[in-house]
Amino acid sequence: MYDRSSLKPVALFDEENGMVSAVIFSHDNQLITTSNSDGVMKVWDTQTLQCLAKIDHRENVGATSGRFINLCFSQDNQYLAASSFDKQNVVYEWRKNIEASFTNFPIDVEDTVGHSFPICFSPIGNLIAYVSSGNTNHTITITDIETDEHIAQLNCLAPLAYQGLVFSPCGQYIAVANQNNEVLVWDVYNNALRMEPTAYNGKRLIPAYTPDGMLRVAELYDNKVAIWDAIQKEKLDTFGRISTAHLRFSTDGARIATILSRSELCVWTVGNPSTKVTSPADHKPVPHSVAFSNKGKTLASGHAFGMYHVFWNVAQRKTEQIFPTPKIQAQRTALTENLTAEEKQQWYRLSAVSPCEERLALRDLPRGAVEIWDIVSETLITKLSDSNLSRSWRATSFSSTGEHFISSARTGDIDVWNTQSGEKINTLPGDNRDILTTAFHPDGRQLAVVPRGSSGMLWDIVTREQIGVFPTELPEDISVYRGDPEQIHQYIEKYKKIGDRYKCCPLKLTFSPCGTMIACGIQEHIRLRDAVTLETRMLILLPETCSRPFALTFSPCGKYLISGAWWRKGLEKVSIRIWEVATGQNIHTFCAHTTDVQDLAFTPDGKILASSSYDGTILLWDMKPFIGT
Q: N or C, which terminus of the chain has less Cβ within 10 Å?
């Protein structure tokens, strides 16, 4: 939580289990409710940040999903409504200083799995509006919670947008935004349209009322927002370069907050043509990747799915620099002078950092190119330009030696570039399947690739020769399995019944330091393959508490393999495990992250392990007691 005027952090809370999916203040700002993927909603006191109540949605109604998208308080803050990707949407009654929370009003919906329907309370009385049927009728039901009386049922012609429902301040009217990009206004008590449908051109609409009853609509496009006076059909303002997935009106309808690149917060105010853009102090999004450089003195972490990298001083635990730097951004601004306004709004994404942290690859979306920058001098070295690059989005990385750079298209084709000359030297053919993960051999010449639905294949990127395809069948030799006998038997019987494609499709690959083995992280096991024959040397079956080992790395000595798990229901902490490569034994397990481990990396001497997590933290581990470095 941040102070809005200074944007300095005020408090850190709701750190445990899964990932937070929704947050909302009560109308008097005395309470905060959060929803987590563990299926638990929590009510917090904003002053003390004490958790006043926990509501276990799954336990209460037998829901299969606890990931709420919509939360809202009633005007008197005594009721809490929640809408999830499930049929069991409910309204909970919660009263301060009363310990027991209970389901007060279940919402009966049909055919809604995979949808999160809007819900809202009226400012007058305890009326709630919600979608009471699914993909056929699209009925909005308005009910008095106290009496359970249906006040109105409004028939809509199209499904509603998930933020597309709001009462007027007087409670007489309700504005509806549907997925046909129309806004309708109903008279609640007369069950009649107050305003005929108004169509818009954007991708999504969000309605909001001001305290004096003015209806405003935010019309969302890919990279901009238009604000309308819905009654007068007058456009009030347009602003761009936004992330349209995150946008909220203030409760008075006078301001809109949205998120730009690098988690910059943009606040737009009605009647003010300028926008306030700033970044919360020292806030960084999820660290999806980590890597050490400079003999382990510097740690580079990749954030926002490759939007930028942060370089940390390991000894001081402080940020040294953030790339792209202001100098690089200024140079790129100069390079975009001839682009249209729409193209300038398309924010580039950071593709990769070279192994020695000397070079930075920036993907230029508008012009379909990848730029290679020198990190130290902050100068553009070369540009990799090809029409195919405009579709590149999965596999973008430097080779182990930094000599080559790869970029894959949605077709699965992988272009191989020389980073010095900027010339494309080869294209590895795909078969119209996305590339899920890649890994370079230490020699920088061999590339392991996993297309979607595949077990993987190995290429020589220079000769364009496919060296081999990873076998899909389970090993017949029982001696290669690691796990208790009953677990091994159940695993083999289970996978005899399903297709080969589901047996060994990895979402993470990594080569051993000497290049003799490839470790594959798969849903329920880790498979070690011979890097020459591609046959399975060992298949380590995992306990239920460490499934989906999609963070994998070998120790620099090659004797140990480290895996990080993803969160699952019931876990308070997720595990990081040390496996002895020679025996497949789990020699140590340590837990600290509260949700999915994203990546793992060793210092060159193997003494420190860095782990990054979806919980927003990077942890440094002293590995000397465990692997004897």
A: N
3-class secondary-structure state, position 79: strand
Interstrand relation of 481-482 and 536-541 (parallel, antiparallel or unpaired):
parallel
pLDDT of residue 102: 52
Q: What angle do CA 574, 575, 581 make, to 5 degrees?
A: 155
List of residues 6+ apart from 202 with CB closer than 8 A: 181, 219, 220, 221, 226
Is residue 25 over pLDDT 80? Answer: yes
3-state SS class at 273: coil
| DSSP for residue 31 | E
| pLDDT tens profile 321-345 | 888 777 776 666 665 555 554 444 4
Q: Residue 426: enclosing H or E segment and its boundaries? A: strand 424-428
User: What is the model's pLDDT at position 313?
Assistant: 93
How many whole angstroms separate alpha carbon 237 and alpha carbon 520? 51
Question: Which of 279, 277, 261 is CA-nearest to residue 269?
Answer: 277
Pairing outcome for strands 508-511 and 298-303: unpaired
pLDDT tops 90 at residue 114: no
DSSP H or E stretch at residue 495? helix 485-496
Least confident of 20-24, 521-525, 625-629: 625-629
The first and second tokens of residue 549, run together, are 């080992």
Closest CA to 455 of 511, 516, 514, 527: 527
From the number of C-beta atoms within 10 Å of its C-beta (0-12, 13-18, 19+), residue 176 rates as buried
Distance (Å, whole) CA 417 – CA 388: 13
Contact 623, 607 (CB under 8 A): yes
- Extended strands (E) in 145-294: 149-155, 160-167, 173-178, 182-187, 192-199, 204-209, 215-220, 224-229, 234-240, 243-249, 255-259, 265-269, 275-278, 287-293
Q: What is the identity of the amino acid at 241?
A: R
d(CA 578, CA 425) in angstroms, rounded, equals 39
**What pLDDT score was predicted for residue 204?**
84
Contact 604, 626 (CB under 8 A): no
Q: Are 324 and 375 in contact (CB under 8 A)?
A: no
Across residues 171-188, what is the average pLDDT?
90
DSSP, collapsed to helix, strand or coil, labels residue 486 as helix
369, β-bridge pairs? 364, 385
Conformational region of residue 481, where left means phi above 0, alpha means psi within -120 to 50, and beta covers everything else: beta
User: Cα 340 from chain centroid?
Assistant: 30
Which residue in 217, 264, 273 sits closest to 243, CA to CA? Answer: 264
Report d(CA 52, CA 36) in Å as an integer: 16
β-strand pairing of 31-36 with 40-45: antiparallel
More confident residue, 65 or 74: 74
HSE-up (13 A, CA, CB side) for residue 329: 13
Where is pLDDT greater, at 246 or 263? 246
Q: Which residues of 403-412 are buried (b: 16+ CB within 10 A; e: fewer)?
A: bbbbbbbeeb
Q: What DSSP line would sit under 187-210, residue for residue? A: ETTTTEEEEEEEE--SSEEEEEE-
DSSP 301-340: EEETTTTEEEEEETTTTEEEEEES-HHHHHHHHHHTTTS-
- The predicted-structure confidence for 271-318, as pLDDT tens digits, reads as follows 776 677 677 766 777 898 999 987 889 998 988 665 678 889 999 998
